[in-house]
Write a structure and sequence with these properties.
This protein is α/β, with parallel strands linked by helices. Strands 2-1-3-4-5 form a five-stranded parallel β-sheet, with helices on both faces. Strand 1, helix 2 and strand 2 form a beta-alpha-beta unit. The longest helix is centred in the N-terminal third of the chain and has 18 residues. It is globular and about 45 Å long.
Length: about 210
C-alpha cells in the first residue's frame, strides 16, 4: 500500500510538471543585424543599438537590449543563428536588420524573402513581436534590383503583420557629412538619427 501511494504521488508530480505553464517572455529586445547595427568603425557606445538601450533605461525601465548583430551577416546566417537566440533569451521583441550584405553580394531576392519569412515565423512562434528594418542599395545597382529589394521588406511585413521601417538610413545615407568614407555606414553623428527612425515603429511594440 505504501509503495502504491508513493507511486501515485510520483505520477501526480510528473503530471503537474508537464502541465506547468511556459515562462513569460522576458522584457528583452534582440537586434539581429549586420554592420549597420554593430557600430561599424565607431565606438559601440555611439551605435544606434546602444543608444536604444540608453533610451529604454530612461523611458521604459526594466527592458534589456541584446545586440546580436555581426558585421558581414547575411539573411541566411542570421536565420541559422536565430533559433539559438530565441531559446537563450526568450525575447518579447525581435528586430531584424538583415539584407544589406545579400544585396551587396547580388544574392537572389527570393532567397532573402524566404530567409526573412522564416525568421519572422520563428520569432512569432516563440511569442515575440517583430520589427523589420529595410535597407536600400546604392543607385548603381539599378532600379529593378533596388525596387525588388524594397518590395521584399514590404511584402514580408504585410504578409506576416510585422512593424516595418522601410529604410533604416533615411535622412542619413544621402548626407555625406553623416556617412563614413565607404558610403555605406553612418559616422557616430548619424546614429541618433538612425535611432529616431527606428523608434516610432519600435516604441508601440513595448506595450
Amino acid at each position: 500500500m505504501r509503495r502504491f501511494l508513493c507511486l501515485l504521488v510520483l505520477l501526480c508530480g510528473i503530471g503537474a510538471l508537464h502541465a506547468a505553464p511556459a515562462k513569460t517572455a522576458a522584457k528583452t529586445v534582440i537586434v539581429l543585424g549586420d554592420s549597420l547595427s554593430a557600430a561599424h568603425n565607431i565606438p559601440v557606445e555611439a551605435g544606434w543599438v546602444h543608444l536604444l538601450e540608453v533610451r529604454l533605461n530612461d523611458m521604459e525601465p526594466g527592458w534589456t537590449v541584446i545586440n546580436a548583430s555581426i558585421s558581414g551577416e547575411t539573411s541566411l546566417s542570421g536565420r541559422n543563428r536565430l533559433s539559438g537566440l530565441l531559446a537563450q533569451y526568450r525575447p518579447r521583441i525581435v528586430v531584424i536588420e538583415l539584407g544589406a550584405n545579400d544585396g551587396l553580394q547580388g544574392l537572389p531576392l527570393p532567397n532573402l524573402r524566404n530567409n526573412l519569412t522564416a525568421m519572422v515565423d520563428a520569432a512569432q512562434h516563440a511569442g515575440a513581436k517583430v520589427l523589420l528594418l529595410g535597407i536600400e542599395m546604392p543607385v548603381n545597382y539599378g532600379p529593378q534590383y533596388r525596387d525588388g529589394l524594397r518590395a521584399v521588406y514590404a511584402d514580408v511585413s504585410g504578409e506576416k503583420h510585422t512593424a516595418l521601417v522601410p529604410f533604416l538610413l533615411e535622412g542619413v545615407a544621402l548626407n555625406p557629412n553623416l556617412m563614413q568614407e565607404d558610403g555605406l555606414h553612418p559616422i557616430a553623428a548619424g546614429e541618433p538619427i538612425v535611432l529616431n527612425t527606428v523608434w516610432p515603429q519600435l516604441e508601440p511594440l513595448l506595450h
